[in-house]
Amino acid sequence: DLFAWSSADMPGIDADFICHRLAIHKEARPVAQRKRKVGGERREAIITETQKLLNAGFIREVRYTTWLANVVLVKKSSGKWRMCVDYTDLNKACPKDSYPLPSIDKMVDGASGHAFLSFLDAYSGYNQIMMYPPDEVHTSFITDHANYCYRVMPFGLKNAGATYQRLMDKVFHHQIGRNMEVYVDDMVVKTTSVTNHATDLAEVFAQIRRHNMRLNPEKCIFSVQGCKFLDFMITSRGIEANPEKCKAIIQMQSPQTVKEVQRLAGRLVSLSRFIPRLVEKAGPIFTLLRKPQNFQWTDQCEEAFRSFTTFLTTPPILQRPDHKADLLLYLVVAESAISAVIVQEHQKVQTPI
Known about the structure:
CATH class of the largest domain: Alpha Beta
Shape: globular
Number of helices: 10
Mean pLDDT: 92
Oligomer: single chain
Number of domains: 3
Strand order of the largest sheet: 2-8-7-3-4
Distance between the termini: 40 Å
């Protein structure tokens, strides 16, 4: 009763506990999109996916609607199609739900440095939340055979992420920060010992059962010492750079265009926590983005690039902070940048946190 093997295995979360509302602006005019043409392969995929949604009770047929959107198909890495709906017009008519999302850095810091970790993934998490009944018809989409609307919260709605985070905060209110971290649909249970980990998992499972949630057995990982969480590698040692991101930079050729420099800059910034004095060292590279019309990959750019590819072969590990130990702050002031690092000392060795 914890796992779902198909969409039909999901009973859904009680709508009295939480449901998704649209709150469309009163002055907004409904938009019925004209049906777009699709090829034969896409048409068959739409028929297949629509039937799955009908069988699961996620959608229902609708005949009279003022809001109508087109289906959009996205190719998955597996080669299969993911069916989405183009809710561009509907999203424009809805105000933004500013429910606060947790700080990613805080989540990663809180989950690192534990002896045992379990990573949980909800089965089609968004679809486990019901739509507010009067708003169902506003999610209508068009196919070759009929128009349908969602009975559950679909992907693509403007405030779906905020609603899902609100659900997680309500369900795991007493555990977040203590033995669990949750960022939207990313969940990790953290513990310092095997015995405690079993107890903490039992507590999480009890909440999942209580609210009729279901997990995806193919994406859950239990009792490991490290795994990827929010694009970082968290382990019992601390926070490690994502090896895939490091590899992407190491295997890059020297950029020859502004677009390639932009790609390199984005990859470097995503690893900024692990690269000391990044702005200073990457100065020659970042300068090219300020003057794209005078693009020239200089020797200084190449030297900076090669220093990063060498450094990222063995990036540093950020240790979990010890709240009983002193924090040491180091500042480096250069002409082009100011850098800082916080370290703690363990057995006369200083390590970044």
